[in-house]
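Worked Example 4.2. Consider the chain below.
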Amino acid sequence: MAILHSYPFCPQSRFARLVLAELGLEPDVVEEKPWDRRVPFLEINPAGSLPLYIDDSGLAVAGPSCLAEYLDETRGEDLRDRRFLPQELGQRVEVRRLLDWFLVKFHGEVSDYLATEKIYKRFMPGELGGGPPDMGAIRAAQTNVRYHLKYIGFLISKRNWLAGDQMTYADLAAAAHLSVVDYLGDVPWNEDETAKLWYARIKSRPSFRALLADRVPGMAPADHYDNLDF
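Applying the procedure from the previous section yields the following structure tokens:
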């Protein structure tokens, strides 16, 4: 049985969960707290990053980008026109560019700050960095999310999906990261209706249901979080 090491509010883990759900794959899920750095986990993935997917053969696939490539190589051809990394070279380049935008740039400028400061620190021991949130980091992320939202709106104004005519890894990565920020109520949806409508399309997919059911203990989501007609 395949295994997915992930954390419910880790944005990179959410990308893995969305992709696997879209493919109809249901691995056993092991909750891995990002700050714990458990020795058995580090022995498999020395980077200590999430997600970590272990396939039926025992092959360990670490990190969201690596997992996306692995799933395309092992299952992409069977998806034909539903392939999340399209066959045509130019389209593949564009999907990879946007995948990097959201898994690296958006994560580094927005979702990692907010997840860490507003969620992780609530449960981290003090010696590992737990405690009150850094309001400066939160304000920076809340500022940064605005131009990312505008960029999503710009892309969708010219395309059916972020990278082109069909849904790809780019859409799933963007939605996964936004979902954490949205839980916290930090996405200014009123600033870009085009981006909001795109997110509503993704949010309505069956693969998103598990994410919408997640809850942070002691912290309710934004009122619209699991409302498909928000």
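Residues 3-82 form a domain with the Glutaredoxin fold (CATH 3.40.30.10). The chain has two domains: 3-82, 89-208. Compare this with Example 4.1 before moving on.
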